[in-house]
Amino acid sequence: xxxxxxxxxxxxxxxxxYDTSDVMIKSKIDHTFRVSENADRIxxxxxxxxxxxxxxxxxGLLHDFGRFEQVKRYGTFIDSHSVDxxxxxxxxxxxxxKIKLFSEAGFKEEAYELMETAIRQHNxxxxxxxxxxxxxxxxxxxxxxxxxxxFRVILEMPFEQRIGKSRNLFEEKEEASEECxxxxxxxxxxxxxxxxxxxxxxxxxxCFAFELVFEESRxxxxxxxxxKMLFSETDESGKPLWKxxxxxxxxxxxxxxxxxxxxxx
Length: 265
Fold this sequence. Notes:
single chain; mainly alpha; Hypothetical protein af1432
């Protein structure tokens, strides 16, 4: 069994090496704990045993280990213009030995391979081929858990803060490309190389809803309400958030997401 108090203490001691007053660092600490909670809930819904529930929780705690160093080195969360944060995190943990920080919490070496795979795979467009069923299940728990909290993050954290130093990389064009919209119609996540504008960034996050694997994940997405709010066309004062062309495409995405989640948006 994992001693979660000790595991979280080890995590916080690691993040104390970074500037926790930095909004980007703090946001990833908050995100980490929420993803852990999501993973725990999904694992319980699958009737996993206590040991596997703990492993799911640990995958959430460790999944973004590379984000802190990414922010320190590059000042951005944009992997394509810095470093693959999942690969960096797994390297820090398993190549540089930081995983040993969690030994006192009861995290054992026999779980290292499973955990390393889950971390390396959590941000990929699709899972690598050839994974065994158990590994694939843990990968999907983590991927769902991460997507679910990203809905909250993009709603609560302004675009400029999330993007950091990469703001000038994104265009201001008023509509998503046809290539992006084709992925919407296919109910798939949009590849990073097709995302060039602020609006396309927003659509790419909404498309996460298409690939939620577990029924509990879809239930959480509806319960949270974040996804529904992300489809708002106006702010609290009634001011339009998007231009007419963008709103038209947003309605298309909403209709497609409702086909997956039901008429809940």
